[in-house]
């Protein structure tokens, strides 16, 4: 968004010489070159995946047609989708909680101010990062293969997904706590467990609950699509409705998902704001 | 922490009410899990999965003129790049609409915030499914899905940045007779661009992760190969795809983390 018309700010010599000179901004030509390179890269990328303006133009009427078929939503389908929707929320609750329980010891093992041995923190962190790169739907597919189709597989998938997220957020919060209480307790001879229970937990608890609620919000959204791979919840019905070209049914499913997610997001935001 | 101090009755009642509520929610959620028991095939399936992960299908990494791992990963990367770039620009007007200090009156910024919330809460895979139905399967649907979905979050973060800017420069420019556009270009944008860039790069990291699964619904990227491998239970191929995803995401995370540190 750097407008080419913007005057290049030249560093003016001041009588009070600053101790550190400001970095000289790149010249006009350099900026033009950067924009050119960016635009060329963008065009190459578009060409590579065949994203063209013509496709967009052709797509817009199709999208209009689709939306036209979605309305009015099929309200008679509502009783059928209510139960899977509830199941979606249940999957999210169980997955988040189990993931959070798993995350507590791992977060403590990652934090530099609790475990001073680098030989422990670094490998645990690497494993945590690897877990976080695995998509939740892949977890779900694997668990469906092992445990069969149903919400249990979805719960396990979300458990691993939430574990990675909560453990990362929590260990970063643990590293940012006030070291005072820990030092004081070390000085009077408390052991590691006592330090964690009385020096770390009280400081970290509001953050932990806040991250738990945030992950729950993310998980409700994730759970609503888990059914696409057979892991329970509303996604299965969405997939089926779309497969049968019943867009009015798909619409009511999306609307209900939207409503549930909005309510949960709002409630969890209220609680989180009270906590922090 | 202090057990000796008697707590007021109201506090205790509140505490127990919340505790009972939470326990009730968990019992309810647990009952919904209807665990069917481990299937008789679970052991053999687990063994074959583990075997697949121990022996990934290296031949899939590069195949002559076919849909191989490298081309899939490249497509994933491009989808997430394009989705991020498109949303990073498209969301700017939305951000100004939703920010309280830039739009006139709370009604404008309020409606902007509501629109962004609605965009944000629709799961991106659902957006992707709709675009696949509309424009056909392929990377284009994925780019559109990521682009639309990212607008919701990016515009929210952008508007929060805009709300925290120093009003001094804008006032000074207005006082010296600049019009609204000039104020925008010379007073507002210079203050917010580093933060905008940082948020966009952060969003790129999130989009990378989403782009890996977009293919499951037919929206392009490595997910297309992944869903085929999963459906045919070709675990050694699933394994090599998973390893590819892990390597790609780790590398892009490192690069974007380094870039964000340089910017802010």
Key descriptive features of the protein:
heterodimer, A: 276 residues, mainly alpha, MetI-like fold, 2 domains, 10 helices, 0% strand, globular, disordered N terminus, B: 264 residues
Task: Write a brief caption for the model.
The complex is a heterodimer of chains A (about 280) and B (about 260). Chain A has 10 helices and no strands. With about 280 residues, chain A is mainly alpha-helical.
Average pLDDT of chain B works out at 84
Written as H for each helix and E for each strand, in order along the chain, the element string of chain A is HHHHHHHHHH
What is the class of the largest domain in chain A in the CATH system?
A: Mainly Alpha
Number of strands of chain A: 0
* DSSP strand count of chain B: 0
Instruction: Quickly give the structural class of chain B.
Output: mainly alpha
Number of helices of chain B: 10
Largest interface: pair, residues per side:
A-B, 63 and 64 residues
Rg calc of chain A: 26 Å
Helix content of chain A: over 70%
How would you describe what is shown here?
The complex is a heterodimer of chains A (276) and B (264). With 276 residues, chain A is mainly alpha-helical. Chain A folds into 2 domains: 43 residues; 201 residues, MetI-like (MetI-like fold, Orthogonal Bundle). Chain A contains 10 helices and no strands. The two termini of chain A are 36 Å apart. The N terminus of chain A is likely disordered. Chain B has 264 residues and is mainly alpha-helical. Chain B has one domain: MetI-like fold. Chain B has 10 helices and no strands. The model of chain B has no long low-confidence stretch (mean pLDDT 84). At the A-B interface, α1, α2, α3, α4 and α5 of A face α1, α2, α3, α4 and α5 of B.
